[in-house]
Design a protein that fits this description.
The complex is a heterodimer of chains A (about 160) and B (about 260). With about 160 residues, chain A is of the alpha/beta class. Helices cover about 20% and strands about 30% of the residues of chain A. Chain B is of the alpha/beta class. In chain B, about 30% of the residues lie in helices and about 20% in strands. Chain B has seven helices and twelve strands. Classes of the chains: A alpha/beta (about 160), B alpha/beta (about 260). The interface of A and B includes residues 11, 12, 34, 67 and 97 of A.
Amino acid sequence: MGIPFMPVRGILGSDYFQVQPHFKNITCPFSGRELVAVKAINPDFTVIHAFQADTRGNLLIERHSDVDLALQAAKVSIATVEEIVEPEELVETAGRRRLSWLNVHYIVQAPGGARPTACPGYYQPDAVELKRYLEAAHDPESFRAYLDQTWPPAAA
Amino acid sequence: MSKPAAALACSLDELMITALAREVRDDTYSAVGTLSPLPAAGCLLASLTSAPQVKMIMLGDPEAPLDRGSSQLFDMAQRGLIDLFFLSFVQMDAEANLNLIALGQHDRPKVRFPGGAGSSMLYHMVSRVVLFKTSHTVRDFVPRVDFVTCSGYHAPLDSWQRPGGPSKVVTPLAVLRVEREPPRIVLESVHPGVTPEQVQENTGFALDIPARTPQTPPPSVQELEMLRSQVLPRLARIYPAYAQRWRERLEDPRA
């Protein structure tokens, strides 16, 4: 949207104000009432995973999702997708909605890109792999080893 | 699934679901967040019994009346439209503050949790926040939370910034009621087989305990039958793993 913050009601009294420099108390210039200004997040990159993209760059995403906000906020937005289809094959369903290419800069064909979490209609969450990930993520060293094992570094 | 309360025809979860269902008012917007099978089941039960016109917004439900994600719920809450939201927590304290962030110091946590998401806003803007917790110990109910994610009594009621707030807490031992005037947390009812003393022993701050504490009303025969035959299959679409454990317990109550 290009606005620097969003005014929000509520939150007052929370310790967020001690640790979160993105929350500030402000006064509404119209009503004089108290509000909390929550600073905009403008990521350099947003990466999301979608079901499909068509050859024009439109996406099919999970309906109950706000990823369009994250795509719109980023300087560069990237969508990985299970498959790329022709425009007439990109069809909305009860659980999936179409998103225009307007805020999508790059599309990467990456089947399985949401693993080990789920991609409804394509694959279930992988509980064994998630457990392995959680254990590895306890410290940087074991996590590095996990990454190297899962995606072996390319030969120089 | 938790063990059944002593001498009760229903399981403890079924008792808690029923207690949560009794908080749902007809013809209101009532919302359930993610990872909340007990209130989701409670909302479904209420929609089949006392609140047939309730407008349920259950995050994670494929049939939720949403075109987008939780942003729609947050926008409605900002407008003051949500009557009821169910929320859980890591710690709750004597001032009705909630911690959903971390145990220990914020910058050097012993345990870090996923976080508050919109809860610190919802805790102010939803008319009634009904809390639920699947354990009730002095580690859950503490004198002072390690981090105030959601502010309790410290943020006063005010039609603009704080039209709503916490109202009840449903736990495996009891139902607590959060009161403002004067600020106190009252033991509203104890579950069958639980004494007020046991609830106090497992709570890290002083509860207001009335001279006679009633028992939490268990589900009626009809409610229990509805829970198992209609709520369970519907819940399975949102929480398949939880519904599976519920089914297994019905087949083998000792499981």
